[in-house]
Amino acid sequence: MLFSTGTFWLFFPAVLALLAANRLTLRSITVQNALLLGASYVFYGWWDWRFLGLIVVSTLIDYVAALGMQRSGESPARKRWLHISVFANLSILGFFKYFNFFVGELKSGLTVAGVNADWSTLEIILPVGISFYTLQTLSYSIDVYYRRAKPEPNLLRYAVYVAFFPQLVAGPIERARKLIPQFAVLAQPTWESLNQGVRLIIAGLFLKIVIADNLAPFVDRIWAAYASLGGGELLLGMLYFSIQIYADFAGYSSIAIGLAALMGIQLSTNFATPFLASSISALWRGWNITLTLFFRDYVYAELRKGRRTESRIALANIATFFVSGLWHGANWTFIVWGTAHGVLLVLERRWRAAVTLSEKLWLKLSGWIYTFGLFVVLSALFRSPDFGTAWTVYNRSVTEFGLPQSERFGLLFVALAFAVDALWRGQTRLDQGLRLAWLDRAGKEMAETLLFAAALILVLVNAVTRQEANAFIYFQF
To answer: N or C, which end of the chain has less CB nearby within 10 Å?
Structure first.
């Protein structure tokens, strides 16, 4: 069930109505959570009901493991429960996401060595959202082990934390200590959260339907004909794809946060204008924030333990981005893409340690050009199915360079994406208004109303004229 389909917009008001009826009559927290869990399972089962079993299994494993840690106190059994949780979760994720990849690589290696490896692989379907909710349950177990969170004794509350449908399939990845307490009380939407939720949903649908979905045909056409296009057109394709994936994922996150706000639940910010960043580190502080924080707290922090030498910090950064690349997909192109960002981060850190930078505008502008330019260029690895495709794209971008010959209407959507970022304060700060400080209060309110009304009209026009809704890109991860 996609946020951008009519089916969802029949489903979601029904959920809101049931929650409102409970608040007005029974005022039961248990009923509220049962409704949320049932709605979440219906939402997820709409793709394939068979994969509901994986969510239930993952939920039970970490629920039992956390209670086992609590009962174990400081005994060795506490660590064993953590190992059970980590092993079980990574085994499930590894089987569905990486089994065919590693088997394929093993076959290739044996073939090169002259060993006959003519066996068939399994046709494994990757369950939607498994990468996201697995990290969320893992963070819970690890936080309980290190006593950063208390084990949740109520299975219903914990199950809702794992399966809460707005952020189930593509985040934000929430920490237990922030989200579970919100299911321990009766959620009460306020006028502020309702206002914020509507604005976030409109902004998210605009990013997804108007910008990302309109750029998709340009990106697909360029990548389909990459071997015969000139460098200018291929560079344009990289630019289009970078904006497409940003608008697609930031749009999803904005809608998810807005949906939760309408129910009186607060989710974490997941994007904060990353394409306005003037350094690689600043870009990653604003891109898929909850995933970046997960890798920082549970991978980088562990790798950096011990002596904090520059070489250890550098290796920890590169290894963390290597893992991040692998998380994005079972393909060497993702691994190289992630590792390249880690190397750039290390080089940037070394350079900033050696050079004192001022806050001059030209330095910020040059930093933005370097940051955005590198992200765009590396996006070819992210989009390419293999190294052969990526090499051809890079090679022709240099050797066959020329002005793009295709229609450049896609640049309009690139400009729209930057306009949204220039006006947008961020996903959880839209209730404070857009960046229209030059207007007085009345003029600002009127301008905001007109902008959101125009965005909503464009969303509706695009939704009505399109035959079918495009799936969100990050669903495949």
So the answer is: N
**DSSP per position, 112-174:** HTT-----PPP-PPPPTTHHHHHHHHHHHHHHHHTTSS-----HHHHHHHHH-GGGTTT----
Burial of 361 (0-12, 13-18, 19+ CB in 10 A): exposed
**Has residue 2 been placed in a domain?**
no
Specify burial of residue 362 (Cβ count, 10 A radius: 0-12, 13-18, 19+): exposed
Burial (CB < 10 A; 0-12, 13-18, 19+), residue 59, is buried
- Per the annotation, the verdict on 328 as an active-site residue is yes
Residues 140, 214 within the same domain: no
Residues 37 and 69 both lie in one domain:
yes
- Provide DSSP, 219-273: HHHHHHTGGGS-HHHHHHHHHHHHHHHHHHHHHHHHHHHHHHHHTT---------
Structure tokens at 349: 């850190």
Cβ atoms 30, 20 nearer than 8 A: no
Among 71, 41, 15, which Cα is nearest to 156's?
Answer: 41
Catalytic residue among 157, 175, 304, 328: 328
Domain count, the chain: 2
Distance CA(58)–CA(134), nearest Å, equals 7
For residues 291 and 197, membership in a common domain is answered with yes
CA 41 to centroid of chain Cα atoms: 21
Quick check: is 205 in a domain? yes
Using one digit for the tens of pLDDT, what is the confidence trace for 1-54?
788 888 999 999 999 999 999 999 999 999 999 999 999 999 999 888 888 999
Q: What Rg do the C-alpha atoms of the chain give, in angstroms?
A: 23
* Shared domain check, 430 and 302: yes
Which candidate, 352, 280, 346, 358, places its Cα nearest to that of 314? Answer: 346
* Reported confidence tier of residue 431, pLDDT bands at 50, 70, 90: very low
* Rounded Cα gap, residues 384 and 396, in angstroms: 14
Gap between the Cα atoms of 162 and 151, Å rounded: 14
